[in-house]
Write a structure and sequence with these properties.
This protein is α/β, with parallel strands linked by helices. It is built from twelve helices and five strands. It folds into two domains: 101 residues, Helicase, Ruva Protein, domain 3 (Orthogonal Bundle); 163 residues, P-loop containing nucleotide triphosphate hydrolases (Rossmann fold, 3-Layer(aba) Sandwich), CATH 3.40.50.300. This is AAA ATPase.
């Protein structure tokens, strides 16, 4: 659509996590620094939480990108699994052939332990990353805790990073999950982008996408995107993409405030009060929408 118009090589505000667009001036970098330091020191359980759209998956991808050859990492993106399925998926992600040789949970656990010990002997650490961990059943969370009991005399054989929405913290606060909560010695809560860096964030993404012109987003447009997006990267990206579409439709080379207003009006997750609009609710007449 607008790539040639703005001199872009690719779309800069796609929602798919892409480490090439990683922005290192937000709380994401603090989270990564904490994770890396804790993993290197051998901590067994770590967790990172954040609201929807704050960039947990990007932190996950960036962490995987940072791992060297002395790590074997397993990533589970859909952990809504019962304990048996969880053990099987972990075995699959660790490239463990757990077919007919492992006919029950006990033998599968022995095979997992053998693989973890094999990695440790070879100087490799084993890392399990679970995204959207807030959806895991209690029984599977307990199974995960028991898996981290596998250890040598020197260190944990399996290290785990849990990524999830704030509901994960609420889940782990329950008394019957206190043992798992106590294992999570390091935790971090991702924060929205500060409003003062939103303009720099937008500039970083369009430059990464190949833009070489002058400021693509005018200052008022950037500030409005930050306010309406409430600092949430996913919403900011959505608004920026729609604002670029609006500017393209007008045949202009810069995004101004009016283009962002149109984007906000078309985006349910945006804070419409930033432009004086109240979302329509049942029982309210359409004439009451704008304040």
């Amino acid at each position: 659509m607008y790539l040639e118009h703005f001199g872009l090589r690719e779309y800069p505000f796609q929602l798919t996590p892409n480490t090439g667009y990683y922005y290192g001036r937000a709380s994401h970098q603090e989270a990564l620094t904490m994770l890396w330091a804790a993993l290197e020191s051998g901590e067994g359980f770590l967790r990172v939480t954040g609201e929807v759209g704050t960039g947990k998956s990007l932190v996950c991808r960036q962490l995987l990108h940072k791992l060297g050859d002395h790590w074997q990492a397993a990533l589970i993106l859909n952990p809504a699994l019962d304990p048996a399925s969880l053990r099987q998926v972990v075995a699959d992600e660790l490239q463990l052939d757990a077919g007919n040789d492992c006919i029950n949970a006990h033998e599968l656990l022995r095979a997992l332990h053998a693989r973890l010990q094999e990695n440790a002997t070879a100087g490799r650490r084993t890392l399990l990353i679970i995204d959207e961990a807030q959806v895991m059943p209690d029984e599977s969370l307990e199974t995960l805790r028991l898996l981290t009991n596998l250890e040598s005399e020197e260190a944990k054989l399996l290290q785990v990073v849990l990524l999830g929405q704030p509901e994960l913290d609420q889940r782990l606060a329950q008394p019957h999950l206190r043992q798992l909560r106590q294992r999570c010695t390091f935790r971090y809560r991702l924060q929205p982008l500060p409003l003062e860096v939103v303009d720099d964030y937008l500039h970083h993404r369009v430059q990464t996408a190949g833009y070489r012109g002058r400021g693509l987003f005018m200052p008022k447009a950037s500030r409005l995107i930050g306010r309406a997006g409430q600092g949430v990267p996913r919403t900011i990206n959505t608004l920026a993409h729609k604002a670029l579409l609006a500017a393209f439709g007008d045949g202009v080379q810069q995004v101004v405030r009016e283009h962002v207003v149109r984007a906000i009006e078309d985006t349910e997750t945006a804070d419409a009060s930033a432009i004086g609009i109240r979302r329509w609710l049942p029982g309210r007449s359409r004439g009451e929408e704008r304040t």
